[in-house]
């Protein structure tokens, strides 16, 4: 073996770079614009139809000493207040982001590890709380209504994402992700007193000792009647593993659900895929894989999802450096474009006065992109 081949065996060959070259600067000190933006990747000409040519990706806000956000989630645009509402799941705080001023203020100081947020057809705020394992609605008079907390005598897991249908029906996912120390609290002891884990579930805020731990239920997708508050299990874990983000098609006839379950040994599919279901009242039928969220042989984890008025599906994804960001699919499930960000995206929504600004939550930061389309329905 010659020396060159010997050296080649000892030194691994680096894969092609998946980040901008030269490395991109973000924030206030960044250049004004890239034309075209190197991190907006068109994979199909149809993607150009929803892009505004002069707009680029921007780091709009990042956590500061005064507002030390740790994991931003659940963005929802308030049309009346003209602000973006979002949750810091780890910090247990909800924030109000004023896009015109690039300024953030505390909206709710203790949100019990809130995650997903949405506004219903009457403009009332709906919030999923990991810590108290419930879904709440804030009424116009300032009172709080518990929309969902139990199902068949057992507590919920950790309500994650939430959407409102055209008929006012409330749909939310209830995976077990809030059982983590940083996003809620571990489970309480079960059965004969044997601990659910080595972790102590009640080493947290004093209110946690009042609610106990969950009943170790399987994950579900639920529907809540907005008038009677009757809760119905629409999908079980056996039917869909790891339900996470969800959104409706513009006409409300299809519900898309992201699965964040990678374990292929479990029933219910999952496996980091996007699924589509036909909606019939509060029943889902015709389960099918809408997209596999693969990029360059990398399997990315889908999280929050939103539809635009043309029926394209925008998906926040997590992956290794250079692969995190947003994937965009046309209504047939074809990947038409990517937004490549320096970190993974947990959730996203359309907002702004014309609903043509895409807001993306990425750990402790908010990224934005002005687009040539609008968000469909209510975020």
UniProtKB/TrEMBL annotation:
Annotated SMP-30/Gluconolactonase/LRE-like region domain residues: 73-361
Protein known as: SMP-30/gluconolactonase/LRE family protein
Organism, as annotated: Candidatus Kirkpatrickella diaphorinae
Keywords: Hydrolase
InterPro entries, sorted: 6-blade_b-propeller_TolB-like (IPR011042), SGL (IPR013658), SMP-30/CGR1_Lactonase (IPR051262)
Superkingdom of origin organism: Bacteria
């Amino acid at each position: 073996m010659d020396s060159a081949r010997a050296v080649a065996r000892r030194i691994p060959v680096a894969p092609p770079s998946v980040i901008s070259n030269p490395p991109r600067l973000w924030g206030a000190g960044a250049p004004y614009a890239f034309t075209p933006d190197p991190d907006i990747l068109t994979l199909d000409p149809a993607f150009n139809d929803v892009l505004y040519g002069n707009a680029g990706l921007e780091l709009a806000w990042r956590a500061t000493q005064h507002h030390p956000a740790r994991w931003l989630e659940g963005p929802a645009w308030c049309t009346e207040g003209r602000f973006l509402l979002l949750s810091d799941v780890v910090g247990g705080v909800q924030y109000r982001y004023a896009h015109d001023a690039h300024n953030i203020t505390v909206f709710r100081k203790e949100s019990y590890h809130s995650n997903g947020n949405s506004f219903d057809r009457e403009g009332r705020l709906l919030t999923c709380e990991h810590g108290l394992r419930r879904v709440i609605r804030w009424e116009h008079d300032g009172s709080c209504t518990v929309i969902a907390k139990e199902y068949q005598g057992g507590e919920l897991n950790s309500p994650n994402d939430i959407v409102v249908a055209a008929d006012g029906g409330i749909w939310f996912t209830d995976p077990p992700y809030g059982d983590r120390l940083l996003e809620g609290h571990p489970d309480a002891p079960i059965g004969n007193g044997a601990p659910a884990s080595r972790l102590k579930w009640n080493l947290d805020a004093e209110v946690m000792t009042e609610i106990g731990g969950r009943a170790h239920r399987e994950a579900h997708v639920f529907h809540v009647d907005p008038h009677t508050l009757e809760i119905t299990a629409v999908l079980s874990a056996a039917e869909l593993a790891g339900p996470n983000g969800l959104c409706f098609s513009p006409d409300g006839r299809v519900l898309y659900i992201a699965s964040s379950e990678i374990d292929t040994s479990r029933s219910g599919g999952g496996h980091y895929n996007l699924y589509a279901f036909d909606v019939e009242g509060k029943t889902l039928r015709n389960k099918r894989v809408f997209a596999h969220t693969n990029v360059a042989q990398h399997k990315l984890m889908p999280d929050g999802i939103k539809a635009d008025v043309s029926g394209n599906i925008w998906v926040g994804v997590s992956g290794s450096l250079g692969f995190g960001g947003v994937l965009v699919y046309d209504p047939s499930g074809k990947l038409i474009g990517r937004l490549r960000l320096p970190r993974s995206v947990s959730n996203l929504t359309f907002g702004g006065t014309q609903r043509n600004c895409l807001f993306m939550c990425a750990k402790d930061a908010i990224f934005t992109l002005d687009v040539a389309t609008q968000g469909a329905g209510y975020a």
